[in-house]
Amino acid sequence: MNSILETIGFPQPTIIPVNGIELEVFEAGQQNAGKPIILLHGWPEHAFSWRHQISALVDSGYHVIVPNQRGYGNSSHFSEVIAYDIKHLADDLVALLDHYEYENATFIGHDWGAMVTWWLTLLNPNRVKQLIALAVPYQVRGERPWIEWMEEFLGSDYYFVHFNRQPGVADRILDENVHQFLHNLFRKNIPKMPPEPGMTIINLASAKEPKGEPVMSEDELAVFVSAFESSGFTGSINWYRNLDRNWHLLANANPIIAQPSLMIYGEQDLIPKFEGLSQFVPNVEEVSLDCGHWIQQEKPKETNQVILEWLKQQDS
């Protein structure tokens, strides 16, 4: 894994103690530049997901900070499910800002990283200067906890629900099929087909004929495979097992996000757009790229262009 990181010039990691844990952090650019930007990966990913964005942001004067969040890579792992709720995840990031002596920063999140970015902003609005979300829009906190709602409308095999209702099942299968699962998951240009019966994630772990085209090279994929072979999947899946707890923790948060925000969708992504986004995020700009879920890895140049142009507008 280290050889591919060195070959592409990916930053070397530093282990940073924050919030009573350790985070594996990759950083580039000058700390005193006054333009901190924190990139948050999704599931099942790694800081390496942002390999195409780091140099472009550094060239634009940003101090780029890319943590492996708790449960990922060489950051701290815990057996307790509650250790991965949004309070812990948000406090890790606040402590990371404190470590670098930043009052606030720009946050960019993809997938689960986007969810954390939205919720961090709700819980600690003074620590988020502006935000960019990829793939996952703001989630409205309705009258019912999220897993309960999903189970009724999406069924027991929907992976959010399955992870919660059948703890340990998916963890074991993914741990036993790390390469197969990630090789089948990180795909693009996937043809539209009727959903298969059963839990989609488990199907991916055993499928012999992956659909679509690979998002990355085998050398790049090896970074993700190596990380999850070492850590296992339980810590990262436990993020999903806190969804209803997060619903309760966000009960008293002001649901309106006032910060300037950019929402980037993938036109081919199965995650739907949120047509009412501006009701909750009034200062949002929405952009769509012709790609699937792995936006910044599928369309790195286009993603960088959209991000840098938007950031320039905010600075002007």
UniProtKB/TrEMBL annotation:
<dbReference type="GO" id="GO:0016787">
    <property type="term" value="F:hydrolase activity"/>
</dbReference>
<dbReference type="InterPro" id="IPR029058">
    <property type="entry name" value="AB_hydrolase_fold"/>
</dbReference>
<keyword id="KW-0378">Hydrolase</keyword>
<dbReference type="InterPro" id="IPR000639">
    <property type="entry name" value="Epox_hydrolase-like"/>
</dbReference>
<protein>
    <submittedName>
        <fullName>Alpha/beta hydrolase</fullName>
    </submittedName>
</protein>
<dbReference type="Pfam" id="PF00561">
    <property type="entry name" value="Abhydrolase_1"/>
</dbReference>
<dbReference type="InterPro" id="IPR000073">
    <property type="entry name" value="AB_hydrolase_1"/>
</dbReference>
<feature type="domain" description="AB hydrolase-1">
    <location>
        <begin position="35"/>
        <end position="300"/>
    </location>
</feature>
